[in-house]
Structure formats: C-alpha cells, structure tokens
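Example 9 (inverse folding). The structure is encoded as follows.
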C-alpha cells in the first residue's frame, strides 16, 4: 500500500473552564478517524491543543486573581485539565499546540506582517458590536434580536483603532469553494454559510484589539493584539512549522489536512480560514467537517447553565472504551444528538454487553469446552456450506469495504452500524447452528462444530479490527481471547476471510463489557453529579455589602444590647423557632423568638451572652410575641447557609449598650 500522509486536527479548545462531554465528543471522533487512517497503513499526524488568548481568558484570570498564563497553565496542564483528560480518553494525538507557545506567537506575528505587506491587512477604525464570551465582532445586521447570533448573549458597543483583514476581497472565491467543491462537509452546512454570510455580503474583518492585552502583540504596532481567531486558526499550520523553526513538517506533504470542528465554528473555518490561506498563498484544507452538538435536554451544555456532563465521572464509571464507543455509535456525526445517562447505559448493555460481549464469551467458552481452546486443523473449510455459513461469510467479508466507505464520508456512526450488523448476524448464527447440540455427538459432528466455531472466531476477528479505532484497549483484550495474531489484526486481513490460522489458541477471559444495572448506576451518577456540583461551589460566599449609605442619626436609632440567655426552648410545632428568655439588664425578662433551630440546640445556649436589637416593634410568631431580634453572622458554604449567633465575653453585663 502506498504510504499516504494524513493530517487531521481537532479545534483547539478554550481553557476557560474544565472541558465537558461535548468537547470530548469532538476529540474522540477525531481520534477514531486518526486511528482508522493509521490502521489503513497511512502515516498520520493528529493535532490538538488549546486556544489560550483573548479577553475571556483575561477576565477569568482576573476573577481568579492570577495571571492569564497561570490561569491557562492550570487548566491545560493541571490535574483534571485538558491534557489529563485526553490521556484518560486514550487520545492518540501526535502533537499538542498551545497558542501561548513561543514558536506559535512569533509565527503569528510573521504571518500577520505578511498579510499586511501584501495589503490584505490595513489600519482603520472599528465601530460595531462585540460579543465578549465568543470573542466575535458583529455588524448590526448580523445580530439576532440585538444579541450575538452564535450564543444569544448581549453584545457591547465597541469603537477603536484597529487592523482589518480584506475578507471582502475573497468573497467570490469563498463562494466558489463552498458551492462548487467538497471542501465543507457535510453538504448541509454549505447552504447555511452561503445564505447567512456570503449572500448578505462579506465585510472586512477586524483582526486586532487595543482594549485588552492578553493576546499576541502586532510586532510593528504593539499596542494592538492580534484577534484571537486569526491567532487560533493558524495553529493548524504553525504546528507543522509554518513561519517557525520549531517544526519542519510544513513542506513534507502533511498540509493540506482535514479540520474537524463543531458546527458553531464552521463560519470561522469555512470562510475566514480559507480566506487567510488565500491571502498567504497557501493551500486550503482538504476538508472542513462541521459536526453537530451533543445536547442535554434539547439545549446546549454550558458551564453558565450548570448543565455540563463530566467525562471523568462517566469514564471512571463505565470505562473509557465504552464511553468512546457510545459517543460514536449513538449520534450521527453531522447532526445534533441528545445526551442522556439512560441512553449511554442502554447502548453499553445492548451493543457491548449483549451483542459483542456475548459473541466473544460464547465463542471462546465453546472453543475451550469442546476443543480445549485449540480448534483442529482443517476447521477453516467446509465442503458443503449451509445458507447460514454463506450468509455470515459474505456479510463479514464485505464489511471492511462498507466500513471504509462510511469512514471516508466522516460517518463513524454508519461504520459502526455495519460492524454491528455482522455481530448480530454472528449471534444469530450461533442460534441457527446450535453448537451445544452438535457437541452431543462429537464423533459425528465434531468437524462441523469446529468449523462453526472457526467461522465465529473469524467474524469476531474482522469486527475486532474495525472496532479498534473506537475501542483500542478492549479490542486488544478481545484479540488476546480469540487468539488473533498480529498479522490477523491488520487492515488488509480485515478483508480476508480465513486469515485467522486454524489452530490459534483461544482463551475465555474476563467479561469485556459487564452488564450495567441501570437503576443503580443512574442513582450513583445523580449522587456523583450532585457532589460535583457542590464541590464546584465557592467554599465561602458572603453577601455583597450594601452601597446605599445610612446617616449616623438613623444608625444610632437602633438599640443593640448585650443579653444573657436565662432559658431557651424549641417552639412546639415549629421546626425552626427557638424561644429565648433573656436578661436585658432592665430587671424584666425579655422574650425573643429566633428561627435558628437548624444550627443550635436550646440547651447549648443557656448562660451565653448574645447581642440583640431591642427596639424593634413586637412581632407575633406561632402565636407568641417576640420583642427584638438576636444578631447573627451568616454566610454560604458550598451552597449551604451557615449561621453563627454573635456571642460575646461573659464579663459583659446584661444590658450593656453597643455603640
Ligand atoms: N477555541 C475555539 C476553537 C478554535 S479552532 C481554531 C473553540 N473552543 S471551544 O473549547 O469552545 O470548543 C472546542 C470544540 O468543542 C468546538 O468544536 C465545539 O463545537 C466543541 N464543542 C463544545 N461543546 C460541544 C457540544 N456540546 N457538543 C459537541 N461539540 C461541542 O471553539
């Protein structure tokens, strides 16, 4: 096979928060595609990384009280961060680019100057609308109900000196690229782009900012930082060595590559990105593929909505491969899909535990039981194949080509569907051939039984090869059980029925995908999600201080006194109220009711010296009169309200006034 070079990328992720299952979906899909191309014997370069500049990151860092670099370092490199997640998910990227890497920074400066020297970047004044969370400029006509058309959030007016990229100059070429080539996939996205962005007229794009500093400075005018999208998009070529010496792969046949991206950033990748490359005189990507979103309850997951699904929790609970498989098997890659824990568990139980798991465990168990784990020579052929033999053989032999067709069209879900048709056919074959019945008379049926088991091992081997880009570790385990040697695990051998040596040793091993108890697992997930939500809450939160001023005379009208608790009891039929009998220094007992039973037991308070405001008008609660209010300090801790009565030194006499 010709040793083709294949370059594939994910978007580079914003390290503004921890990544969620939606980001994982995008990366796992790209990983499965990369592994598929490696399986085919191609030389693959798989790039992912992080997009670390921009106002959003600058603001977040400020909130966290750290520098922007410290902030992104923590999310990219730290525990539970981006790199750790990709390692956990068994992502096989060859390179990881951070846009704060020195080589990228200087490359962006160089290519910005190239475009400027060419006259494609010029200085002007930016007036318009800016969406800070999306780092996007919009014209009035592009807004949706006055808000950002991408995220729906409010935009702000912005006016400043800025550099512009002559995007308008490339409008016709971009239209042609979109309409008349297969550059943008799936095809359904083309219409969207042309109708929403090209037809209304492409305007020049503002590509620098002066209102914040966390970006790559324009080297010939350093009060400007490069617009974060111009900086980010070029990662796909700087990571190969374009305009830098860190790598020297740009001219080695990797570029152009394939950019896999989510649907909301297709505009940047299918309009701005090719126009930039046209300006630089560089080849355009082979394809940009815009996949759909994973939704939760029909809406987008987002940190601000508090509805993100944590891939760490799911991977730990169900296994990395099961999670990878679920993401690719369930949702057609170009469309949106609704995520749910129930669907995840159902998919694992049906496809992995029932169909694949049973096929492997029944086949290996029978090979062990009837043949001691090694089938006899000659078992690969059978003189008079029955219909079911022919059916299974034909379906499995043609699987690789059907799978390849689907994968080449960026349709991993269809490829998996083809594999599972064979797995289901193989399970049916077990029922049709009833090996346990054949085993009753080994003298008469032993050869037939061996052939049936060989066919099952062969079908399993072919499916195992084609599933390995999706579940690499589990397929290694599957091969170890079914005995397929290295040469029987290759792409070529996936199209060769009979490539499995007849006398391999088969060993029934651990259950590859145990069945999951849906109810129990859902309850555990809900508890874990609640705990994670709680852990993510700020440790201590206090109410903001009032800004409205109170004049001194008004303040002095409040009469605060030290009071001693003579008696305290819970108010009957009230879960909250305690009734206090207090010595307030007047010689007459004062009764105050206070709703603090959640924090204090009455007996613990007797004898304490507290602070009360004593000139509030009397108030009735549960039929009892309360004359004043005890003073407490309150704050929130991990989402829970905490209250502390203000207790003072017992040496302070009852009735002492606070001033
Ligand atoms: N930094 C930009 C990309 C720059 S590429 C030159 C960005 N980053 S992101 O972190 O917000 O998103 C990264 C990818 O994750 C995008 O492709 C986005 O579509 C994808 N996803 C984020 N949430 C998603 C879902 N809920 N579902 C599927 N993919 C989602 O955009």
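The amino acid assigned to each position is listed next.
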């Amino acid at each position: 096979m010709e040793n083709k070079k294949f370059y594939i990328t994910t978007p580079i992720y914003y390290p503004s928060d921890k990544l969620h299952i939606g980001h994982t979906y995008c990366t796992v899909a790209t990983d499965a595609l990369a592994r598929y191309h490696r399986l085919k014997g191609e030389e693959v370069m798989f790039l992912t990384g992080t997009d670390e500049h921009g106002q959003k990151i600058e603001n977040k860092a400020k909130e966290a009280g750290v520098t922007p670099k410290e902030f992104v370092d923590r999310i990219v490199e730290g525990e539970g961060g981006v790199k750790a997640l990709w390692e956990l998910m068994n992502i096989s990227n060859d390179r990881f680019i951070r846009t704060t890497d020195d080589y990228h920074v200087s490359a962006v400066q160089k290519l910005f100057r190239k475009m400027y020297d060419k006259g494609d970047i010029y200085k002007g004044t930016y007036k318009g609308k800016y969406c800070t969370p999306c780092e996007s400029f919009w014209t009035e006509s592009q807004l949706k109900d006055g808000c950002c058309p991408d995220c729906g959030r409010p935009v702000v007016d912005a006016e400043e000196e800025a550099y512009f990229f002559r995007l308008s100059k490339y409008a016709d070429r971009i239209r042609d690229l979109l309409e008349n080539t297969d550059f943008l996939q799936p095809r359904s996205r083309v219409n969207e782009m042309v109708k929403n962005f090209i037809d209304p007229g492409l305007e020049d794009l503002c590509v620098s900012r002066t209102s914040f500093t966390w970006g790559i400075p324009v080297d010939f005018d350093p009060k400007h930082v490069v617009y974060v999208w111009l900086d980010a998009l070029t990662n796909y070529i700087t990571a190969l060595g374009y305009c830098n010496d860190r790598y020297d792969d740009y001219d080695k046949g990797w570029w152009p590559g394939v950019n896999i991206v989510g649907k909301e950033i297709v505009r940047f990748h299918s309009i701005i990105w090719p126009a930039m490359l046209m300006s630089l005189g560089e080849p355009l990507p082979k394809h940009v593929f815009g996949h759909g979103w994973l939704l939760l309850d029909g809406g987008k997951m987002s940190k601000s909505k508090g509805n993100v699904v944590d891939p760490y929790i799911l991977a730990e609970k169900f296994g990395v491969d099961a999670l990878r498989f679920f993401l690719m098997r369930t949702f057609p890659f170009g469309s949106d899909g609704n995520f749910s824990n129930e669907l995840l568990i159902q998919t694992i139980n049906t496809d992995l535990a029932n169909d694949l798991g049973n096929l492997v465990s029944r086949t290996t168990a029978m090979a062990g039981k009837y043949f001691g784990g090694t089938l006899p020579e000659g078992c690969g052929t059978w003189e008079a194949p029955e219909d079911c033999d022919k059916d299974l053989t034909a379906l499995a032999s043609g699987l690789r080509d059907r799978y390849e067709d689907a994968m080449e069209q960026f349709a991993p879900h269809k490829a998996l569907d083809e594999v599972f048709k064979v797995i289901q056919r193989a399970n049916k074959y077990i029922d049709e051939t009833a090996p346990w019945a054949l085993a009753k008379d080994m003298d008469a049926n032993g050869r037939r039984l061996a052939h049936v088991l060989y066919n099952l091992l062969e079908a399993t081997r072919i499916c195992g090869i084609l599933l390995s880009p999706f579940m690499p570790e589990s397929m290694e385990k599957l091969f170890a059980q079914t005995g397929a040697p290295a040469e029987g695990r290759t792409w070529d051998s996936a199209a060769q029925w009979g490539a499995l040596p007849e006398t391999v040793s088969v060993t029934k091993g651990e259950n590859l995908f145990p069945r999951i108890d849906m109810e129990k697992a859902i309850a555990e997930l809900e508890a874990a999600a609640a705990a994670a939500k709680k852990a993510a809450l700020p440790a201590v939160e206090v109410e903001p201080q009032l800004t409205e001023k109170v004049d001194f005379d008004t303040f002095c009208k409040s009469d605060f006194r030290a009071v001693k608790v003579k008696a305290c009891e819970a108010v009957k039929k009230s879960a909250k109220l305690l009734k206090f009998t207090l010595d307030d220094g007047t010689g007459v007992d004062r009764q105050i009711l206070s709703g603090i039973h959640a924090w204090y037991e009455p007996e613990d308070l007797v004898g304490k010296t507290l602070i009360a405001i004593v000139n509030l008008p009397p108030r009735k609660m549960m039929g009892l009169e309360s004359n004043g209010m005890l003073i407490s300090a309150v704050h929130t801790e991990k989402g829970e309200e905490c209250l502390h009565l203000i207790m003072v030194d017992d040496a302070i006499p009852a009735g002492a006034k606070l001033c």
